[in-house]
Amino acid sequence: MSGQRVVEAAPVRGGGAHADAGDGAGSAVDAAWVGLQAICTGQGEVYGYELLHRTGAANRTWLVGENEQERATAQVIAATFGAFGTEELAAGRRLFLNLTRSFVTGQLPLPFSPEGVVLELLETVDVDRRVLQGLEALKQRGFALALDDFDGEEWRIPAVALVDYVKIDVQVSGDRLPEVVALVRRVNPAAVVVAERVETQEQFQVCRRLGIELFQGYLLHRPDVLAQPVLSASHLTCVRLIASLSDREVALSRVVDLLSADPGLSTRILKTVSSAAYAPAGGITSLHQAVVMLGPRELRHWAVLVLLAGPGSVQVPEQTLTWIFARAEACRLLTPTDPEAASTVGLLSAAAQALRFDVSRITEGCALQPAIRQALLDGAGPLGAVLEAVRRHEGALHERTAVEPGTSRPGAARPAGLRGPALPTATGTGSGGVPVPAFPGALRPAAVSAAYLRAHVAAAAKVAALNGRAVQP
């Protein structure tokens, strides 16, 4: 199995993962990276994957000091649960995640469901009273636990008694491997032993004779490095969100506005709420619903993690943001029967265009209501008809403003730097090639134009308010 790919996920995109999103000093498009190494049974079947920190296509990362390790953990969490989604990465298998002391003791948050996740206590963490209390608390939350790189150290034995998995580095233990395995069996007979860094058939056979259950190493699988393009989550948005959520009297609409201002963060929130621990049976209908379901505490945790995960990213340009808001608001105004769902369709379709890839990439991992998903992917149903009408209006405006440089009309809200899917200008078919019938009265060009003008004014006001200034007349 050496060198064989054992997980199907988005492949490394070469130079494309950091594709430019437009003109300017920076890009609103970023890339989430993660490494995966399979953990296998004695029969070679994949049991789970260890999540590895990666910052690019290079299949190795060197970390020095606890601060770097904490940032690495935050980046892995953000990539796994906010960009890829656990189903895409693991396909129902377990994911093993390394934790530093601050995450174990609760100083840093773990804002995700325990389902299918195994938390690994790194060998660099001192096993003291606070760490043991943290492990107990994590077990009570439903997490499975693992102890990484155990080599018989006496000071780590209290942790052995608590965990579900004990990982032993066969290269380090060497001839003492039988002794270390026997110690684990005495202290915690229920623990599953994982042999790490298994690189030869001889090592594999020795481990099997000792009754070791799981195996990890180059003999079985070399790590995959996966990349997923995402909209950058602005650190300014995170700071504002944390500040707003600290006020118990903050209006829910203010929180939704802040999240809507950052498509990168809002799509991560939608994917988080799509996990089995939160997702409603009928699917998510709006960002407003996702905020209510997640709650202020978990929202603060996600904002903290994004802040910790890396240096500040370039904020989405105001022009782009106004265009995104305008599309979402126009869809909402044109759908009085289901305004929140229509707004979500507008928001996600615009975010996909800003990212410059197919909208299916945005919807992956999001447990959206079927009507929303069909509208986004196929242009189907009443919501698809509304989105198509708005996109046609934008296409007409874009054609006009393309020959009128410097115009301040609403059509200019779609920035020239966004080179996403061509906006539809022809009649007869929807964005997915689905036939679109003649528009009813509410979606005739004059009605759409009036709604879009109102939406653009509202969007400009919202962007100005979020940036703490008055609307320009």
What does this protein look like?
Pfam families: EAL (PF00563), HDOD (PF08668). This is EAL and modified HD-GYP domain-containing signal transduction protein. By secondary structure, the protein is α/β, with parallel strands linked by helices. The chain folds into 2 domains: 215 residues, Alpha-Beta Barrel (TIM Barrel), CATH 3.20.20.450; 235 residues, Hypothetical protein af1432, CATH 1.10.3210. 45% of the residues lie in helices and 12% in strands. The chain is built from 18 helices and 9 strands. A hairpin with a 4-residue loop joins β1 and β2.
What string gives the helices and strands in order? Answer: EEHHEHEHEHEHHEHEEHHHHHHHHHH
Label the structural class.
alpha/beta
Kindly provide the radius of gyration, computed on alpha-carbon positions and rounded to a whole number of angstroms: 25 Å
In helices, the fraction of residues equals 40-55%
Which architecture of the largest domain would the CATH scheme give at its second level? Orthogonal Bundle
CATH class of the largest domain: Mainly Alpha
Beta-strand percent range: 5-15%
Number of domains: 2
Poorly predicted regions = 1-28, 403-439
Described by strand count, sense and barrel closure, the largest sheet is: 8 strands, mixed, barrel
Shape annotation = elongated
DSSP strand tally: 9
- Average predicted confidence as pLDDT: 76
Distance between the termini: 66 Å
Protein name: EAL and modified HD-GYP domain-containing signal transduction protein
Biased composition (Low complexity): 409-424
Domain EAL: 1-237
InterPro entries: EAL_dom (IPR001633), EAL_sf (IPR035919), HDOD (IPR013976), RNase_Y/CdgJ (IPR052340)
